[in-house]
């Protein structure tokens, strides 16, 4: 009898243990359900002053890559701001009013840690992601790289790189087919940032090996966007095991190998005493040399991790956003031929044949500059940015949000807000005439406030050079059979490319 009882004990123990586990699991599930419910009620209470279109309780405003189209509907229907639900309890307040922008960009709220951390395996913790004291130190350290005196000699480099691209275009148009311009422009802007900021020697546009880096950047921006909108991929463990995660990390490796090679090349060049002496004689160093010679407050050089983070950040931001801007500007001019011709006449009067372009020329093209700004209004290279409130905020109309709330600053929505820009879909460069009045925060292609784009003057110079030289060489015609379909990624892209017909000018 005792033996029978002892024999039954393991089964009884296991059965009891499983019951305890089941009970604990049920209690945990109940706790999570209550936690989910209470947090959702908190979100609903916070957002009751920010109405929106109906959303599913689990899938939210499931837009299926229709973010920009939905934004236009929100802007039309809900003044200043609205709410957007992603899935479950993930919700943002979306703002697109200049007074709202002024309030948020005038504060020092951090970027949302969770979503921006998806960039970290690729670009590390550079200026895009850094916060607080370390961000301020890096920003102050790198600002001289974009001083006016540094930018002036870069114009010649920009001119040479644009001419290389235009020479390639002349070869392509003999086939009398529309040309997809974005990929060409991306390689051109990559060459410019590498030569101006990283002392690179050689031709990026004619080097087939560089395409692997450019393609890796496109892959990375796609993967990050899709991950932000996939509830299951918020977990690093699940994402790393997925096919998307494996593709993301393979692309990271390609990008890192390229930037590591560039850093190593520059370090090797500085081992040469003559090159080192030339650099030390410069009053203003370029971007990479500043990083290599920089010292932290305790007298140490930047760590390899910090060095690569800033290089990866500027390699990406310095070429992809500018490529987006130039591509959409040329498309806007192609679809507005009367403005294109007026710009061309202005450029011809200033530059002649364009063989010699200087810094001073860039300020002598007011109408072309107006058209560039109007295109950036219609097609902002960065459609949206995010903030996480570090303290409660009250907006000018009395609506408020608590600490910890997530905010999307929709620059695309702001630039298409009919209360700010009458007839916002119409290309009208007169909006940017010298005597035109507008809200300081109504036009933000380079963001605003203390975290505005550090390279905005560099970018504007590059846009002007590229647009001016292109108009001197070609007439731009749109392809009615391939109208671009906008999609929002880290930068503004087109689902089906940006195709133009190019007609060589005599």
Instruction: Report the biggest beta sheet as strand number plus sense, adding barrel if it closes.
Output: 4 strands, mixed
Based on CA atoms alone, the radius of gyration comes out at 26 Å
Helix content: 40-55%
Strands of the widest sheet, in order across it, are 1-2-7-4
Mean pLDDT: 90
Uncertain stretches:
none
Please tell me the total number of domains. 1
Amino-to-carboxy terminus distance: 109 Å
State the name of the first-level CATH class: Mainly Alpha
Summed up, the helix count is: 20
Q: In CATH terms, what is the fold-level topology?
A: Cytochrome p450
Number of strand segments: 11
Could you state the oligomeric state of the chains shown?
single chain
Shape: globular
β-strand amount: 5-15%
CATH architectural name: Orthogonal Bundle
Q: If you had to describe this structure to a student in words, what would you say it looks like?
A:
With 506 residues, the chain is an alpha+beta fold. It is built from 20 helices and 11 strands. It has helices spanning 2-46, 67-77, 98-105, 113-116, 120-123, 132-142, 148-151, 154-172, 182-198, 210-228, 236-241, 243-269, 273-281, 287-293, 304-317, 320-334, 337-351, 366-378, 411-415, 456-473, and strands at 81-87, 90-95, 179-180, 384-388, 393-394, 400-401, 406-410, 474-478, 486-488, 492-494, 499-504. The strands form 4 sheets. Strands 1-2-7-4 form a 4-stranded mixed β-sheet. Helix 8 (154-172) runs antiparallel to helix 9 (182-198). The mean pLDDT is 90.
């Amino acid at each position: 009898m005792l033996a029978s009882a002892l024999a039954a004990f393991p089964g009884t123990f296991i059965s009891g243990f499983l019951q305890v586990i089941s009970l604990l699991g049920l209690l945990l599930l109940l706790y999570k359900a209550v936690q989910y419910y209470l947090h959702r009620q908190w979100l609903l209470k916070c957002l009751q002053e920010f109405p929106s279109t109906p959303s599913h309780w689990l899938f939210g405003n499931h837009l299926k890559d229709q973010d920009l189209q939905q934004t236009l509907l929100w802007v039309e229907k809900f003044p200043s701001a609205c709410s957007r639900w992603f899935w479950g309890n993930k919700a943002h307040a979306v703002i697109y009013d200049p007074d709202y922008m002024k309030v948020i960009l005038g504060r020092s709220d951090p970027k949302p840690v969770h979503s921006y951390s998806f960039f970290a395996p690729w670009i590390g913790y550079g200026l895009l992601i850094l916060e607080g004291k370390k961000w301020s130190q890096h920003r102050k350290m790198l600002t001289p790289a974009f001083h006016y005196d540094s930018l002036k000699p870069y114009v010649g480099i920009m001119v040479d790189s644009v001419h290389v691209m235009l020479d390639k275009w002349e070869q392509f148009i003999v086939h009398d087919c529309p040309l997809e311009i974005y990929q060409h422009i991306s390689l051109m802007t990559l060459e410019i940032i590498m030569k101006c900021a990283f002392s690179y020697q050689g031709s990026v546009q004619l080097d087939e090996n560089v395409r692997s880096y450019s393609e890796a950047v496109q892959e990375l921006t796609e993967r990050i966007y899709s991950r932000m909108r996939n509830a299951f991929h918020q977990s690093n463990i699940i994402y790393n095991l997925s096919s998307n995660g494996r593709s993301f990390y393979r692309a990271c490796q390609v990008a890192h190998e390229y930037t590591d090679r560039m850093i190593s090349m520059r370090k090797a060049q500085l081992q040469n005493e003559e090159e080192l002496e030339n650099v030390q004689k410069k009053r203003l160093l370029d971007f990479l040399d500043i990083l290599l010679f920089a010292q932290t407050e305790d007298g140490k050089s930047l760590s390899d991790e910090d060095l690569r983070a800033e290089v990866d950040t500027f390699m990406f931001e310095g070429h992809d956003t500018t490529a987006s801007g130039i591509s959409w500007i040329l498309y806007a001019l192609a679809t507005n031929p009367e403005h294109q011709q007026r710009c061309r006449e202005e450029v011809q009067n200033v530059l002649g044949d364009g063989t010699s372009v200087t810094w001073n020329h860039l300020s002598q093209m007011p109408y072309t500059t107006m058209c560039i700004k109007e295109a950036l209004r219609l097609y902002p290279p960065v459609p949206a940015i995010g903030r996480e409130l570090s303290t409660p905020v009250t907006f000018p109309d009395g609506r408020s949000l608590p600490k910890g709330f997530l905010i999307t600053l929709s620059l695309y929505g702001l630039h298409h807000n009919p209360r700010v820009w009458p007839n916002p879909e119409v290309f009208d460069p007169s909006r940017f005439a010298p005597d035109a009045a507008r809200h300081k925060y109504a036009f933000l292609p380079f963001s605003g406030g203390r975290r505005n784009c550090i390279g905005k003057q560099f970018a504007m110079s590059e846009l002007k050079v590229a647009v001016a030289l292109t108009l001197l060489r070609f007439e731009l015609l749109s392809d009615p059979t391939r109208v671009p379909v906008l999609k929002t990624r880290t930068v503004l892209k087109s689902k089906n490319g940006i195709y133009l017909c190019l007609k060589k000018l005599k």
